[in-house]
Amino acid sequence: MEINPRRVEQQLRNFQRAIDAYDNTEPFARFLTRFFKENKQMGSSDRRMTSRLCYNVFRLGDSLVNLPTVDRLVVSEFLCETQSAIVAFYQPDWMANITSSLTEKILFLETQGYQVINRLFPFTSHLSPTIDTEQFILSHLVQPDLFIRVPQKNKAAVERELTEHKISFEQVFGNAYRLPNGSKLQNIREIDGLYEVQDLSSQQSIEGVLLKRGDKWWDACAASGGKSLLLLDHCPHIDLLVSDIRLSVLRNLDERFDKAKIKTTYRKKVLDLTQDISHLMDGEAFDGILVDAPCSGSGTWGRTPEMLSQFDEERIQAFTTLQRQIVDTVVRYLKPQGTLIYITCSVFEAENEQLVRYLEEEHGLVVEEGSIIKGYNRKSDSMFAARLRKI
């Protein structure tokens, strides 16, 4: 490939400035938005390349941390891309292997003295037992796709506009569509409100749940309402309560519901589920409770690879303590024979299988189904979902 040395050096300077300015106190995507606003001289191609280079380096996790930053960048570009002026400029001999499979690239790097896999994902001892460890680790070197959920009534309109705007798409199953990451759907006004951005695994998280008209459901950790919208997509005639500890988030939920043209009347409560909430619940009892629990998010780090090196192992215990407090609180409001759906976007056993065992042993719930929803082999997030019944 043709190389422009001055252009490569400029890309490297932009990358270095962004990496040096990032202090790890916020999601990198949020930082990058502000960084680009503060550096208006950067054109669209500069912004795209800076974003790419930074995210590729983050995908190495704690691997090769003793190397100079430029060397780590070259390795990450070689692993994550099939064309790279950075690699061609600094390691031209590697270009013959840059289109090889990921496994072949890793083997090639080992012949060059680079051991990548060992520290890429430093928390393998905590993984749920059904996860293919090597395949999961390698998945962090691949950017996940974008997924949307399109209600049946909107499919024709959405497909027509995507085709007209030359955005490729694949209907994966049912209402789930796969698109290239970075697709600018927000620029297509004609489909505004006709779809929801929702990962493939998330769309599968309530499969098998029986929803009946008039059933009382509580989305206990509702956040901005993604799982509530999924419930309503399956059955728009449930009696729905949504709650979160943050009023601002519930206001975002209102806006999202309005945008999706939700006709179902729903109720809201601001609740801290680590505290006694009996005085706020008015004797409520539910046919179903959905707990999309706060968690490590470790199944989504392919989208936020900066977390591979930022996450503190001790936080796993903090999350499991919080999760137990939450389920302890909500279970008492579940009717006999009622359904509890427990969901995380974590791949850690302590937050998943061990938490479900806690529900069995401490609260007498019966597991009907529960497993990791594997996304690492299909360019999506990995999650955990369990369905339990109160006897």
Fold and architecture overview:
The protein is of the alpha/beta class. It folds into three domains: 5-120; 146-197, Alpha-Beta Plaits, CATH 3.30.70; 201-389, Vaccinia Virus protein VP39 (Rossmann fold). It is 38% helix and 16% strand. The protein has 15 helices and eleven strands. The protein has helices at residues 5-21, 28-38, 44-58, 69-80, 85-90, 102-111, 133-139, 155-164, 200-203, 226-234, 247-259, 278-281, 307-310, 315-331, 353-363, and strands at residues 146-149, 170-173, 176-179, 196-197, 216-219, 239-244, 266-270, 286-292, 334-344, 366-373, 383-389. The protein has a seven-stranded mixed beta sheet with strand order 7-6-5-8-9-11-10. A four-stranded antiparallel beta sheet has the order 2-3-1-4, with no helix packed on it. Strand 2 and strand 3 form a beta hairpin. The longest helix has 17 residues, at 5-21. The radius of gyration is 23 Å and the shape is globular. This is RsmB/NOP family class I SAM-dependent RNA methyltransferase. One of its GO terms (biological process) is RNA methylation. The active site is at residue 345.
On the 0 to 100 scale, the average pLDDT is: 97
Please report the first level of CATH classification, the CATH class of the largest domain.
Answer: Alpha Beta
Q: Mind summarizing the main beta sheet?
A: 7 strands, mixed
What structural category arises from helix and sheet content? alpha/beta
Beta-sheet strand percentage?
A: 15-25%
Residue share in helix: 25-40%
At the fourth level of CATH, the homologous superfamily of the largest domain is Vaccinia Virus protein VP39
